[in-house]
């Protein structure tokens, strides 16, 4: 049964009777084909934590819509997600997060939940135990300031004058990651206007006498943190002394133009929840009426994120159709679905229609390439990304069409490849949205505590980039491929693993790195560099060591904060698939017979795990979250991950069976 927004829901699903490998693959293919949208694409739910519902409620209060029935429905969601110990977390099983918990507590208090009731008292104890209001991150304090629940003078300065800084200066807004930029520009407008919307409640009961103790950071970090804090104080002092000069008006005018231009070229500002909420508040600060088309456009896009079920509303942080479609198409092709059949051809046409054809913020990274590539969402013209583009290129290289559609495919492939090559960083790797966005000093700015201020190269995206270049016909000796491989070799950890930025965590990074590096020796088997062979062996050995007793693999999101949790956690279908895909690629990379035997045995156990846990409709369900937004701050559950990744892994494993080699 397909639930709201194409979400595969857990209820009414049962584990299927034992199937053989081909039957399991066939059932998974049928499951994916049955979840296809009418126009040929796929989209699964993208689930985040309750900070989304809380901020939606607060936005409705800001707009004077406290009687909106969605407020009640969102608050039901907040109650249902409260931990038994009283607080709220960034992912199921995580520790109490003060920012997430304070916003949830505030929303429940606003709609009339008695602070003396057991669930509110428990929430209060949990928040105080986590450090109280003082422990909240800077974004939460800025939100609370809007409603008179925190002091603007104690919130970090977000001066709009940042947008006036030129590119030749040591820092400007394009040195921030794209997602931070999209949130901070409207936030700077809000900070400049300092709106006041009293809610008629206080949070005094959540205040503590002292700030929470933290681990003492290194001296260089303390220096820059204090320097930026002093600058923030100076900016606030200048504001307090007297009228601001003409550059404040100029900065606000430029920020307004920046926001409006990007709203009109996307499904909401940057097509992400946080930026869109900030945009609505910023536009209201600038004098736009709620009925204005730009405000209404943002509100309509936010409504698309709503999923209503059993009287509750939960919000998605964004929509993931391009990501889900490209990964699904690749999995179906892996499983043997004919690329000339209607589902693949229709998906190809859908993807070609969504190629980005205009220059976006990436142009600021000293790049003068023509537009190309794909974004994550339906429409987000300013922000194509390297990960989606790489997976789309992998799909396009494997599909053949006819006539005009084939011409479009070849042209899009050429443009996408050129754009991806242009986005390669000087270190050989790829970041997500920008080139050369790696100034670590910016991570010490007071409002940078969301842990995503920059967008440097990462092993996971670089691994997909390598595979896309090879699939498009570049040889392993090409400079771009060689530099990317060298980057991966440098980034391998001492234990043999690679970290994952966008998926949890070292299982994700290691599986992708092995897939990429495993393809290089196959192109030149007699000239395998020793460092490459050693890296493959170490990565393979690490995955074999962390395989669970049930045959699967799992790694908790806690590993982003606790290195001892690396590779440890309850087995999930998606993480098992990532490990299997990496090991399958490593098997063919000139492995000696003993290593190949151990790897094939581990793969067999992994395949058994997936087959045993496949449900009667051919799907899988991950109870544990395996997606990442901002490490340590915001995590995700991709409902599509346990659908297409296990299919790809089982199909790859089948290709290794006797009779399928070569």
Explain what the structure shows:
With 662 residues, the chain is mostly helical. A hairpin with a 3-residue loop joins strand 4 and strand 5. The protein is 49% helix and 3% strand. The protein has 22 helices and five strands.
Tell me, briefly, the overall form: globular
Strand order within the widest beta sheet: 1-5-4
Main sheet specs: 3 strands, antiparallel
* CATH third-tier fold name of the largest domain: Glycosyltransferase
Helix fraction?
Answer: 40-55%
Put the structure in a nutshell.
The protein has 22 helices and 5 strands. The chain has 662 residues and is mostly helical. The strands form 2 sheets. The protein has a 3-stranded antiparallel β-sheet with strand order 1-5-4, with no helix packed on it. It has a two-stranded antiparallel sheet with strand order 2-3.
Defining key terms:
mainly alpha; 5 strands; 4 domains; disordered N terminus; 22 helices; 49% helix; 3-stranded antiparallel beta sheet; two-stranded antiparallel sheet; single chain
Indicate the topology:
Layout lengths: L20 H14 L11 E2 L3 H12 L6 H12 L17 H13 L7 H12 L8 H9 L31 H16 L25 H23 L4 H18 L9 H13 L7 H12 L1 E4 L2 E4 L5 H14 L7 H12 L32 H11 L6 H20 L36 H13 L7 H13 L14 H18 L6 H16 L27 H15 L5 H21 L13 E4 L3 E5 L2 H15 L7
Helix pairs in contact: 1-22, 2-3, 2-4, 2-10, 4-5, 7-9, 7-10, 10-11, 12-14, 12-22, 14-15, 14-16, 16-17, 16-18, 18-19, 18-20, 19-20, 20-21, 20-22, 21-22
């Amino acid at each position: 049964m397909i639930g709201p927004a194409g979400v595969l829901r857990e209820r009414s699903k049962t584990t299927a009777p034992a199937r053989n490998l081909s039957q399991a693959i066939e059932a998974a293919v049928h499951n994916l084909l049955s979840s296809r949208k009418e126009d040929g694409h796929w989209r699964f739910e993208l689930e985040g934590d309750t900070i989304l519902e809380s901020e939606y409620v607060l936005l409705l209060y800001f707009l004077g819509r406290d009687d909106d029935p969605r407020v009640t429905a969102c608050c039901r969601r907040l109650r249902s997600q409260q931990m038994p110990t009283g607080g709220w977390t960034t992912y199921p099983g995580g520790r109490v997060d003060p920012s997430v918990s304070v916003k949830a507590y505030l929303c429940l208090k606003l709609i009339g939940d008695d602070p003396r009731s057991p669930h509110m008292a428990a929430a209060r104890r949990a928040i105080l135990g986590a450090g109280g209001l003082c422990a909240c991150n800077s974004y939460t304090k800025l939100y609370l300031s809007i409603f008179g629940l925190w002091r603007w003078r104690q919130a970090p300065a977000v001066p709009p004058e940042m947008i006036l800084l030129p590119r030749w200066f040591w820092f400007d807004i394009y040195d921030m990651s794209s997602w931070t930029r999209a949130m901070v520009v409207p936030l700077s407008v809000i900070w400049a206007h300092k709106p006041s919307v009293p809610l008629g409640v206080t949070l005094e009961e959540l205040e503590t006498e002292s700030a929470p103790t933290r681990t003492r950071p290194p001296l260089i970090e303390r220096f820059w943190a204090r320097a930026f804090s002093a600058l923030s104080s100076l900016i606030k002092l200048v504001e307090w002394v007297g009228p601001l000069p003409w550059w404040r008006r100029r900065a606000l005018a430029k920020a307004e133009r920046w926001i409006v231009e990007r709203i009109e070229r996307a499904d909401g500002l940057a097509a992400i929840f946080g930026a869109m909420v900030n945009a609505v508040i910023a536009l209201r600060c600038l004098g736009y009426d709620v009925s204005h088309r730009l405000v209404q456009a943002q509100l309509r896009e936010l409504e698309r994120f709503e999923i209503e079920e059993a009287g509750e509303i939960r919000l998605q942080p964004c929509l993931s159709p391009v990501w889900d479609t490209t990964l699904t198409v690749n999995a179906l092709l892996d499983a043997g679905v004919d690329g000339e059949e209607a589902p693949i051809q229709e998906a190809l046409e859908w993807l070609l229609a969504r190629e980005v054809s205009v220059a976006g913020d990436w142009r600021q990274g000293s790049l003068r390439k023509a537009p190309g590539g794909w974004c994550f969402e339906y429409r987000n013209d300013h922000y194509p990304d390297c990960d989606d583009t790489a997976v789309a290129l992998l799909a396009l290289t494997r599909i053949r069409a006819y006539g005009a559609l084939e011409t479009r495919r070849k042209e899009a492939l050429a443009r996408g490849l050129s754009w991806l090559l242009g986005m390669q960083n000087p270190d050989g790797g790829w970041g997500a949205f920008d080139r050369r966005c790696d100034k670590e000093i910016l991570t010490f700015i007071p409002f940078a505590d969301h842990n995503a201020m920059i967008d440097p190269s990462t092993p996971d995206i670089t691994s997909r980039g390598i595979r896309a270049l090879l699939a498009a016909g570049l040889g392993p000796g090409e400079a771009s491929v060689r530099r990317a491989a060298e980057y991966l070799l440098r980034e391998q950890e001492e234990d043999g693993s690679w970290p994952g930025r966008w998926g949890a965590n070292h299982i994700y990074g290691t599986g992708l790195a092995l897939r990429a590096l495993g393809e290089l020796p196959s192109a030149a088997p007699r000239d395998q560099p020793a460092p490459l062979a050693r890296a493959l062996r170490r990565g393979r050995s690490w995955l074999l060591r962390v395989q669970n007793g049930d045959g699967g693999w799992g790694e908790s999101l806690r590993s982003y904060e606790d290195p001892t949790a690396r590779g440890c956690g309850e087995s999930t279908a998606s993480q098992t698939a990532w490990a299997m895909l990496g090991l399958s690629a490593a098997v063919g990379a000139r492995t000696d017979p003993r290593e190949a035997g151990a790897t094939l045995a581990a793969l067999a156990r992994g395949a058994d795990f997936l087959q045993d846990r496949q449900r009667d409709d051919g799907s899988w369900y991950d109870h544990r979250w395996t997606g990442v937004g901002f490490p340590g701050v915001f995590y995700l559950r991709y409902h599509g991950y346990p659908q297409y990744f296990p299919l790809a892994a089982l199909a790859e494993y089948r290709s290794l069976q006797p009779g399928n080699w070569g």
